[in-house]
Amino acid sequence: MAMETESQKAFHVDVGNLLAFNPFHSFPSLPASRDELVKECLHEGTKLVQAVADSLFNLPSSEDVDGPLVKLPPPTTKLPREKHLPKPKPPTKWEEFAKKKGIQKRKKDKVVWDEQTGTWKRRFGYDRVNDDKDIPIIEAKMTDGVDPFAKRQDEKKKRVEKQEKNRLQNLKQAAKIGALPSHVQLAATALPITGTQAPPKKVTKDELGNVAGMAATSTASGGKFDRKLPGEKPAKKQGKHRKFLPVVEGSGIGSREKEQTESVLNKLISKHSHEILNVGKAVTMYNVKKEKKARNKRNQEGKFSSATNKLKPKKLLQKKTGKKGPVSSKKGKAK
Amino acid sequence: MHLYTLQTLRFCSSAIMMRIKTPKNGRVRRELEKRAPKLVETGKKTLILQGTKTSGTLNGVLSEIYHLKKGGAVRFTRKNDNIRPFESGGETSLEFFSLKTDCSLFVYGSHSKKRPNNLVIGRMYDHHVYDLVEVGVENFKSIESFNYDKKMAPRVGSKPFIAFVGEGFENVDELKHLKEVLLDLLRGEVVENINLAGVDRAYVCTAISSNKVYLTHCALRLKKSGTVVPRMELVEVGPSMDLVVRRHRLPNEGLRKEAMRTAKDQPKKKIKNVSSDAIEGTIGKIYIPDQKVGDVALPNKAKGVKRERREAKKKEANERASKKQKEESE
């Protein structure tokens, strides 16, 4: 129970934390009973607390409603942080450019003078200055036939898209060094695009379930003997897809069944068979026949027979010019 | 950091499409800003949870710690059997909870034959386990078992005095670590100004032996003394327990260095329109727009308006009277 009396009263006092530490006390022998231990601890504790209070109450205080208010000094014991130090935001591409060029930020007014109406209007928002819908007339150039209003809208859309892209790039750059602002999160929307440039179309669960059934109709048996995967549900329309006409006649359109049978019959019997005769072909056949007849007649009149001409090819060459003369004259005479 | 997915753009065809998510709600935005890393940190929140098996005393200990830290603590009551703080894989659940509740201190209680009434007090850095101390609780006395004058019970959320007694806290490694962790746990918020009338509690930790610490919570009684400084009197009110240090894990040196880093004090933001003068002290400028005296609308009940009305009425009456006279005369 004999306690060391500390010769130096050097407690380590940290007023900022209201902390006091006595590094010199020790129990050479543990007190017999718990009560005594407790008493001893409280006694030491009181001394320490008194030491802190000494420094605390001697600090300059200011009077407040509830009581004297004291400004605490910063704590001296260093404790680890709970989160990392915030990194400063990296300058955006525009900020870098502005710094390089020496462009200063100008404070913008909320209201701007509108020349058109002669009033002060908002810079953006409800009733704003350069609104696209307030332009009544745009002078058209003679060169192109493009809608200028639509063109303005397209340009604006492009500008907005470009701005969004730039903003995303700036945020990505900030996220790379770990300085993303606290309220912003970057979320991936789609997987990387490989191969073709088109992003993969999202297929719904129901569509995926129907795909196997749709593929099955390409087989002759309609997918009846295809090996099924575990858990695959039977196709919605099993077997080959056949369409049967309605039993009862539809009104207004006319009987489809009647049309069907009629067309079949016509093909077979060819009663009103305009389609069967190829008029053009018949005309050319007739003309060719006529010309042949006429040629044969002329040959018989002019020479012995067309056969001698055929047997003597040389003479044919010589007589070619000769033949031309009377034929042409004959032609003229004939009609 | 692991909340945000990112892929650097190498070439256009293999870019991950990203979109920017911002909160549409003001409340969500404010909550996110509260949880963001700050230059100067405010109080740490504590997460109190338990493992597969707990004993009666341990339940008492956990609930009393929760009471002591009412403002900045979160209490989980379900049992979590996949949390093993000292094993490499058993911390993921803890880190997840820490992330979701934004707590960087945790107190995990469990009871087993090998380690009865076990309490693991740990800290997190960036929601990853920073360091751990495992203590066993013995001789626990709850708040109810103390008899004291209820009037001087300490109020919730008051800043406590903390006293460490014993050379063990200086010499023994484990006790040194325990001291730091206890300080972090019991400290509360770091404040600049404190109301001297509001100090009413003190924690006393005495190193009884090289691995045992006696922790108790006392109320303060300020007694009149001759000087400005009152005489302090400690009365045991709260829970008292013996903590036996079992295991501990110190942080990695690199992690410790990073966590202890503080930013150099930035120059305070200049308050606009305030200047200080040697003679007059602090001067503030207030800009008032020009008053348009003529355009100000007078209220209906103004005396002047009433008088105008009265006079106008009188005039009318006179005119009518004069008209009548004229008619009569005619």
From TrEMBL, chain A:
Similarity comment text for this entry: Belongs to the RRS1 family.
Descriptive protein name: Ribosome biogenesis regulatory protein
Signal peptide extent: none
Biased composition (Basic residues): 311-323
UniProt function note: Involved in ribosomal large subunit assembly.
Keyword set, alphabetical order: Nucleus, Ribosome biogenesis
Annotated Basic and acidic residues bias: 224-235
Superkingdom of origin: Eukaryota
Record's compositionally biased regions (Low complexity): 214-223
Region (Disordered): 67-93, 146-166, 214-263, 288-335
UniProt keyword Nucleus, yes or no: yes
Pfam families (UniProt xref): RRS1
TrEMBL record, chain B:
Principal place of residence: nucleus
Domain of life: Eukaryota
Pfam family, one: Brix
Record-annotated membrane-spanning stretches: none
Keywords (A to Z) from UniProt: Nucleus
Compositionally biased tracts (Basic and acidic residues): 308-330
InterPro entries: Brix, Rpf2
Residue numbers spanned by region Disordered: 297-330
Keyword Nucleus: yes
Domain Brix: 44-254
Subcellular location(s) per record: Nucleus, Nucleolus
Family, as annotated: Belongs to the RPF2 family.
Cited PANTHER family: BRIX DOMAIN CONTAINING PROTEIN (PTHR12728), RIBOSOME PRODUCTION FACTOR 2 HOMOLOG (PTHR12728:SF0)
Protein name: Ribosome production factor 2 homolog
Organism the protein comes from: Hibiscus sabdariffa (roselle)
